[in-house]
């Protein structure tokens, strides 16, 4: 999708034949020909189907539920209410927070009161989805409507409480060091803005879905799920139902996107697990698109005041952010915890002497907050908008202001004023590369010429630094099993959680190099908890560095065993053996060699020919535990646009991303991840808005109202790569979230740059045509 500029290229070695190359994705053949297996493709004997009765009110008492008419409908097997399912919950904590972290309420079905439009209040079970859908209309719920609080900015002063026991609707909050007001008071230049980000949603192409089958005689539970974390889903199900984890199996085949929404099981998932034990056959629930937009979880939705102080030359003196984030009625724990990251990361990739933050998370009668790609994105959005405003106030080009303040490689390690330890990064490198690809001076001339003709062109930058592969809690370890089969072919077993991020391809590349195998001899098995080692799945941009570590550990053990077998077979010392092309050869005499297939035949079928004491095993399992707390990645996004001041339409004309994610396992995969995130961020800047009215009614529950970016809105993306190895195995860093972090502020800054001659600055998103026209009208 555009030009590629490479700097600091990774040196290829004899043992890295595949890593670093554009190996074609192994997933593509089945996915592009329609042979993938998604949850809705799973069928089981006698399978039943579920559909939820949902509240049409943002807040209402549930005075009673009459399911008699629904139960009388032929094909209906059961109708469950909170009284039937909720008492069966044993434990409902998830590893992203842990068992000791206080959590907000999250009952499977609404108890006593519905708290948002779409809140599940009953569960209908029928022979097929059609009957179940019809039966939901026959369930009579006696709702007593109550006043709702939908505007989270008013939640703390409202008389309405979303949850009893949470005064002021406050779910949580945290403060860092207090702001140094003396610095702000004395600084030659201070900029302060209130910046508001709308609600938008992950919108995976495959909605949520789950099939649960309970085998009563053996008391075993099998789950087929659309999930990013199969092993943690297994652990969650065991805790939820109070059954031994070894009696739970989770099978995850193909998952059509997750973006964070599929990390933690939703309340609906809990309902299906609980209901399945009460039924004679497997139970399937597939969320439709309206349900997904209405109740699967909101994201972003933050408003806050950001301030920065500068000296007369534009050097940053201090930064402060004070914000409020909406967590809806029933948030998942992940994004509530990551709200702190907005404050911690606010200094970003810049040289900031003093920083402070304060935040509050509040409940509202809307869908609960769910994780979404780069859930702390607001820190970059608010900081980067503020920097451009400051540049105009100082009479500087935003490029010069960033150039003056960005951190350099020779300043590492560097601890930001909130205590975040940066290392193995050089934010100034990605910035300078982006500026060079853009031809900054050339664009400024083009912009001046266009303005003389009455056209408004703009340029926006956004630089950020992000943590990837954070080694905290269960995220800090990952397992892998590598097995040479009797045919000599190789299987690598990893937890998986692949939701479009190409883990299948990258682990095959890593394994082929780890063993010296031909890549065509390597395959992978993922997503089945019965055969794969425990792993935390796809979240937190961890898959690259963590699976690379796990494969390195297991591959080292297995390579040692292959070498020992080959040395005995060839009558040489272990040190004389080298492995390549699925063959072990004598280094000084390549004519003497043995294939992996020949070694495997001996190990499996002629183990007596091995020397005494030598294991016949050609399999290794290992766990990698990261010794680096964080693998820091960074990037600079640059965007140019033209704004039609008559209609408010924004046309993006160029888009550049220069990133450093360390050495690339597969450049095509890296660019695909960046492009996907970038497009999502563009949607958040221009189009997407999961709006509610004042009474808490959702206004965008179809794609007619909830607008997504398409190829019409997105120009070709140009990539630049800076490769600074990280602290872990192979130097790899994560790449999953960055595109979604940098693109929204880059687009907004480009629009603001275009409109600067008219005195217009967008600080409330999205920058829709109507919003732009209204701001221009206000300026006359």
Give a verbal description of the structure.
- The chain has 780 residues and is an alpha+beta fold.
- The chain folds into 3 domains: 39-146 and 207-255 and 262-295, Aldehyde oxidase/xanthine dehydrogenase, a/b hammerhead (Aldehyde Oxidoreductase, domain 3, Alpha-Beta Complex); 299-469 and 630-778, Aldehyde Oxidoreductase, domain 4; 472-625, Aldehyde oxidase/xanthine dehydrogenase, molybdopterin binding domain (Aldehyde Oxidoreductase, domain 4, 2-Layer Sandwich).
- The chain is 28% helix and 26% strand.
- The protein has 19 helices and 29 strands.
- The strands form 7 sheets. It has a 7-stranded mixed beta sheet, with helices on both faces. The chain has a 5-stranded mixed beta sheet with strand order 1-29-28-27-19, with helices on both faces.
- It is globular.
- The two termini are 40 Å apart.
- Residues 3-14 have low confidence and may be disordered.
Shape: globular
CATH superfamily assignment of the largest domain?
Aldehyde oxidase/xanthine dehydrogenase, molybdopterin binding domain
Strand share of the residues?
25-35%
Flag low-confidence runs.
Answer: 3-14
In DSSP terms (H or I, runs of 4 or more residues), the helix count works out at 19
CATH class of the largest domain: Alpha Beta
Oligomerization state of this entry? single chain
Q: Determine the fraction of residues in helical runs and give it as a percent range.
A: 25-40%
CATH topology of the largest domain: Aldehyde Oxidoreductase, domain 4
Structural class: alpha+beta
For the record, the count of structural domains works out to: 3
Question: What is the arithmetic mean of pLDDT?
Answer: 96
């Amino acid at each position: 999708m555009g030009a590629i500029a490479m700097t600091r290229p990774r040196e290829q070695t004899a043992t890295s034949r595949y890593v670093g190359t554009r190996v074609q994705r192994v997933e593509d053949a089945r996915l592009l020909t329609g042979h993938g297996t998604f949850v809705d493709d799973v069928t089981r004997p006698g399978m039943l189907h579920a559909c939820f009765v949902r509240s049409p009110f943002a807040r209402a008492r549930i005075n009673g539920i009459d399911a008699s008419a629904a139960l009388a409908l032929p094909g209906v097997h059961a109708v469950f209410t909170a009284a039937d399912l909720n008492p069966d919950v044993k434990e409902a904590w998830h590893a992203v927070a842990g068992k000791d972290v206080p959590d907000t309420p999250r009952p499977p079905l609404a108890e006593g009161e519905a708290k948002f439009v779409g809140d599940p209040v009953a569960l209908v079970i029928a022979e097929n989805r059609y009957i179940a859908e019809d039966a939901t209309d026959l369930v009579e719920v006696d709702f007593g409507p109550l006043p709702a609080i939908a505007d989270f900015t008013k939640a703390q002063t409202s008389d309405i409480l979303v949850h009893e026991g949470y005064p002021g609707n406050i779910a949580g909050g945290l403060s860092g060091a207090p702001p140094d007001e003396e610095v702000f008071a004395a600084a030659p230049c201070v900029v302060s803005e209130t910046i508001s980000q709308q609600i938008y949603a992950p919108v995976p192409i495959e909605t949520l879905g789950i099939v649960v089958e309970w085998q009563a005689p053996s008391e075993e539970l099998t789950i087929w799920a659309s999930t990013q974390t199969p092993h943690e889903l297994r652990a969650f199900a065991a805790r939820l139902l109070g059954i031994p984890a070894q009696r739970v199996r989770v099978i995850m085949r193909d998952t059509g996107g997750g973006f964070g929404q599929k990390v933690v099981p939703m309340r609906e998932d809990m309902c299906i697990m609980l209901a399945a034990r009460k039924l004679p056959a497997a139970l399937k629930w597939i969320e439709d698109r309206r349900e997904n937009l209405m109740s699967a979880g909101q994201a972003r939705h933050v408003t806050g005041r950001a301030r920065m102080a500068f000296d007369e030359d534009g050097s940053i003196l201090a930064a402060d952010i004070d914000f409020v984030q909406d967590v809806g009625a029933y948030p998942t724990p992940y994004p509530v915890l990551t709200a702190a990251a907005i404050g911690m990361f606010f200094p970003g990739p810049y040289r900031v002497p003093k920083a402070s933050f304060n935040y509050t998370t509040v409940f509202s009668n809307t869908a609960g907050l769910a994780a979404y790609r780069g859930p702390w994105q607001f820190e970059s959005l608010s900081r980067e908008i503020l920097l451009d405003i400051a540049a105009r106030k100082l009479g500087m080009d935003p490029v010069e202001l960033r150039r003056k303040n960005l951190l350099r490689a020779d300043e590492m390690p560097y601890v930001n004023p909130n205590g975040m330890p940066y290392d193995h990064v050089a934010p100034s490198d990605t910035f300078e590369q982006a500026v060079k690809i853009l031809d900054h001076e050339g664009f400024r001339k083009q912009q001046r010429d266009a303005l003389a003709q009455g056209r408004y062109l703009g340029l926006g930058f956004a630089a950020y630094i992000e943590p990837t592969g954070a080694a905290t809690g269960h995220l800090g370890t990952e397992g892998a099993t590598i097995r040479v089969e009797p045919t000599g072919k190789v299987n690598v077993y990893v937890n998986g959680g692949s939701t479009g991020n190409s883990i299948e391809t990258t682990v095959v590349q890593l394994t082929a190099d780890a063993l010296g195998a031909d890549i065509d001899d390597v395959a992978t098995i993922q997503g089945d908890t019965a055969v794969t080692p425990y792993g935390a799945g796809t979240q937190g941009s961890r898959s690259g560095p963590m699976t690379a570590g796990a494969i390195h550990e297991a591959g080292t053990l297995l390579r040692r065993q292959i070498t020992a077998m080959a040395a005995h077979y060839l009558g040489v010392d272990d040190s004389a053996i080298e492995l390549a092309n699925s063959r072990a050869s004598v280094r000084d005499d390549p004519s003497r060699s043995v294939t992996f297939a020949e070694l495997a035949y001996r190990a499996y079928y002629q183990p007596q020919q091995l020397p005494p004491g030598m294991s016949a095993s050609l399999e290794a399992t290992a766990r990698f535990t990261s010794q680096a707390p964080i693998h820091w990645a960074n990037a600079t996004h640059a965007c140019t646009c033209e704004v039609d001041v008559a209609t408010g339409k924004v046309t993006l004309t160029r888009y550049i991303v220069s990133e450093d994610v360390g050495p690339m396992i597969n450049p095509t995969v890296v660019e695909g991840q960046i492009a996907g995130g970038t497009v999502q961020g563009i949607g958040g800047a221009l189009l997407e808005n999961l709006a509610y009215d004042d009474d808490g009614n959702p206004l965008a529950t179809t794609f007619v109202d909830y607008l997504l970016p398409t190829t019409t809105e997105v120009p070709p993306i140009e990539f630049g790569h800076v490769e600074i190895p990280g602290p872990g195995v192979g130097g790899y860093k994560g790449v999953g979230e960055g595109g979604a972090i940098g693109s929204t502020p880059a687009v907004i800054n480009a629009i603001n740059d275009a409109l600067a001659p008219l005195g217009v600055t967008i600080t409330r998103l999205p920058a829709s045509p109507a919003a732009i026209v209204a701001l221009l009208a206000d300026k006359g």
